């Protein structure tokens, strides 16, 4: 059942809902509206699939606290999708949210859109602590776009997320957060401990990753044992040929990997990177599909040479190219 307004939802038969979608974005709800939403959600004790879209409502930490208290009563939830984009909830708001979610012991599929909320690294400490209590989650998606997160924040999250050993599908976005090489390397090394993980999508665009002789980012991928699909966005960093070679060497050792989408747009790549990449990757014959996204790399300016080299990889390869 879908509702476009809080009032409409409040007037419905709340206890009868099992599959519920609330489209409440940009409705100037504020903290008072969040309190009213809590009162209604608390009565939805039979809901097992819940999608709440609350972006751009400025509910802040107090409003999220109300939401968390409402969710704590929905103990039958299996699928939960929360869009809290641009609500200024801060680190405290994340803590209050998981004070409620931790009671949803049947939760298997969780999606959180937390863009532009001033969460910071401390917020990831609370996020990680909350996730560590959700032992049955198998599908997890978290968007942390532009939240002033540093490398230590990534460490907090990874230390806890590896306790969710039922995870098989994971989507994480750290776009526009200054996690750097250290944060990116620790992220990959930590996630590789999720032994049941088969699908991984990482968005690390504009996260200050650069080529460093001491970087373990690319090589860390070799630790994944059961990964079959990888989507990796490295757009708008300072990555050069050597780091790409390390990445290829790491991926070459992921023997279950079959499908890769790699976005290297707006980096410092040179023409010879693809030769090196293909040479490193040829040892992994299980990769059947490989999509390259290479736009606005001014040092890679011959599309036809790229296509010729890609064909030699003997994979089903697609190239998205623009200079």
From TrEMBL:
<keyword id="KW-0433">Leucine-rich repeat</keyword>
<dbReference type="GO" id="GO:0005829">
    <property type="term" value="C:cytosol"/>
</dbReference>
<dbReference type="InterPro" id="IPR027038">
    <property type="entry name" value="RanGap"/>
</dbReference>
<keyword id="KW-0418">Kinase</keyword>
<keyword id="KW-0343">GTPase activation</keyword>
<dbReference type="GO" id="GO:0016301">
    <property type="term" value="F:kinase activity"/>
</dbReference>
<dbReference type="GO" id="GO:0006913">
    <property type="term" value="P:nucleocytoplasmic transport"/>
</dbReference>
<dbReference type="InterPro" id="IPR001611">
    <property type="entry name" value="Leu-rich_rpt"/>
</dbReference>
<protein>
    <submittedName>
        <fullName>Kinase domain protein</fullName>
    </submittedName>
</protein>
<dbReference type="GO" id="GO:0048471">
    <property type="term" value="C:perinuclear region of cytoplasm"/>
</dbReference>
<dbReference type="GO" id="GO:0005634">
    <property type="term" value="C:nucleus"/>
</dbReference>
<dbReference type="InterPro" id="IPR032675">
    <property type="entry name" value="LRR_dom_sf"/>
</dbReference>
<keyword id="KW-0808">Transferase</keyword>
<keyword id="KW-0677">Repeat</keyword>
<dbReference type="Pfam" id="PF13516">
    <property type="entry name" value="LRR_6"/>
</dbReference>
<dbReference type="GO" id="GO:0031267">
    <property type="term" value="F:small GTPase binding"/>
</dbReference>
<dbReference type="GO" id="GO:0005096">
    <property type="term" value="F:GTPase activator activity"/>
</dbReference>
């Amino acid at each position: 059942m879908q509702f476009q307004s809080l009032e409409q939802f409040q007037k419905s038969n709340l206890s009868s809902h099992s599959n519920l979608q609330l489209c409440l974005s940009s409705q100037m709800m504020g903290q008072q509206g969040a309190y009213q939403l809590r009162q209604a959600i608390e009565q939805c004790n039979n809901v097992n699939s819940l999608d709440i879209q609350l972006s751009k409502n400025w509910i802040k930490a107090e409003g999220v606290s109300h939401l968390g208290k409402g969710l704590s009563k929905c103990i039958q939830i299996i699928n939960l999708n929360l869009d809290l984009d641009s609500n200024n909830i801060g680190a405290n708001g994340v803590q209050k949210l998981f004070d409620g979610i931790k009671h949803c012991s049947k939760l298997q599929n969780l999606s959180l859109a937390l863009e532009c909320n001033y969460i910071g690294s401390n917020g990831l400490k609370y996020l990680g602590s909350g996730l560590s209590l959700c032992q049955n989650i198998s599908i997890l998606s978290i968007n942390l776009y532009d939240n002033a997160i540093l490398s230590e924040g990534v460490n907090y999250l990874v230390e806890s997320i590896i306790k969710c050993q039922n995870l098989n599908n994971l989507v994480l976005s750290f776009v526009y957060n200054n996690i750097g090489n250290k944060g990116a390397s620790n992220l990959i090394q930590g996630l590789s401990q999720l032994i049941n993980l088969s699908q991984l999508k990482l968005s690390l665009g504009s996260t200050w990753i650069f080529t460093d002789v001491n970087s373990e980012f690319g090589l860390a991928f070799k630790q994944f044992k059961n990964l079959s699909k990888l989507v990796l966005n490295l757009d708008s960093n300072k990555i050069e040929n050597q780091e790409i070679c390390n990445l290829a060497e790491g991926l070459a050792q992921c023997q279950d990997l079959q499908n890769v989408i790699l976005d290297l747009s707006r980096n410092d790549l040179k023409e010879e990177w693809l030769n090196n990449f293909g040479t490193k990757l040829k040892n992994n014959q299980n990769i059947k599909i490989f999509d390259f996204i290479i736009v606005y790399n001014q040092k890679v300016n011959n599309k036809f040479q790229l296509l010729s080299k890609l064909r030699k990889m003997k994979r089903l390869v697609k190239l998205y190219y623009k200079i």
